[in-house]
Amino acid sequence: MKSERLDDEIEGSQPERLDRCIDGRISGHDDHGQYRIEYAERGIAALGPEHLILRVSGVFGWELSRKNFVLQLADRVAAGHRMRAATDVRYNPTYSANLPDVIADLHEAGRRGIYHAAGAEELSRYDFALAVMRTFELDPAMIDPIPASALKA
Question: Beta 83-86 vs 2-5: how paired, if at all?
Answer without folding.
Answer: unpaired
